[in-house]
Amino acid sequence: MDILENLKTKNVYTNGPIIHNPQVVKYLESKGVKSVDDVSKLRKGVLVIRTHGIKKDSAIPKTAGLRVIDATCPFVKRAQEIVTREGAAFAIAARDMDEGKLAETAAALGKAISDAMIEEGFKRFAKLWRPILKVFEECGVKFALEVHPTEIAFDLFTAKRALKAIRHHKCFGFNFDPSHLLWQGVDPVKFIEEFPDRIFHVHMKDATVALDGRRGILASHLNFGDPNRGWDFRSPGRGKVNFEEIIRALNRIGYDGPLSVEWEDSGMDREHGAREACEFVRKVDFAPSQVAFDAAFDQ
User: Fold this and answer.
1) Low-confidence ranges of the chain (pLDDT < 70)
2) Rounded distance, CA 164 to CA 266, Å?
3) Cβ(260)–Cβ(204) below 8 Å
4) Angstrom distance (rounded) from CA 276 to CA 268
5) What's the 3-state SS for 217-266?
6) Distance between CA atoms of 12 and 14, rounded to whole angstroms?
7) How far apart (Å, rounded) are the C-alpha atoms in residues 198 and 247?
8) Rounded to an integer, what distance in angstroms lies between the CA atom of residue 46 and that of residue 65?
């Protein structure tokens, strides 16, 4: 975004949408940035390669009038190198990672995952993050990890293990998102009760589960919105998350931070969903009582 906004020239192109946000894409279009699928036809101007990179077989013209700015994410480039070398369908790369020795790359390259690999992964996590958390503490910053699959902490027990790994550093906590716990079969309220002093932020996000003997919980490689998925996201209040009990649990632990709507619902208009979600959160939220029920009659 910064690169695109600071370019003082006409004829600026990107190889596809620079970001998965139609509002931002529309804004960039108003500034003259054009998204193109076929870069081989470009002859002059500036081509900004987006962070996702560019296909290996893309023919970028080598002409004097075309300037190319490569904004590919370093981790994407690393993954591309592994794929090219190993001939794998995909790979997950991490900084300073020895390929095949940690769980993430072992899974990507089709190798067996051992308990030792998992343990090494948590040690690597601690080694990288303890120095970062030290600086956060000096700056008065708290870090909230969103607990969901693909993160090192994705349920109650992995969250406990992550905390243990970084020695329960006070600046490390969680962004509580009930939708990702629900479809795994984890009770969101029990997560709150397990980590009352570690809930640093809350996502009001809903999901539904539709297992009927045919659909699978791993979603069958189907995109969001496909009716054959075993689970999917819903606009808040339209899924199976029990926000009533979540608000009560948050009140019990004294959480007074924001209730942030992370909205995803492939079957609903975005603007309608935004208004509806805002109204729902205001309706479901309430302040905790400051007195015992019987004591209120003494007032």
Assistant:
1) 1-9, 19-21, 56-57, 79, 82-112, 291-299
2) 37
3) yes
4) 11
5) CCHHHCCCCCCCCCEEEECCCCCCCCHHHHHHHHHHCCCCCCEECCCCCC
6) 7
7) 16
8) 9
Q: What DSSP character marks residue 35?
A: E
pLDDT in tens, 177-235: 999 999 999 999 999 999 999 999 999 999 999 999 999 999 999 999 999 999 999 99
Q: Which of 199, 113, 205 shows the shortest CA–CA distance to 163?
A: 199
C-alpha 107: how far from chain center: 20
* Parallel, antiparallel or unpaired: strands 172-176 and 33-36: unpaired
CATH number of 114-298: 3.20.20.150
pTM of the shown model: 0.67
Written out in words, the top-level CATH class of the domain with range 2-72 is: alpha beta
Q: Report domain extents, the chain.
A: 2-72, 114-298
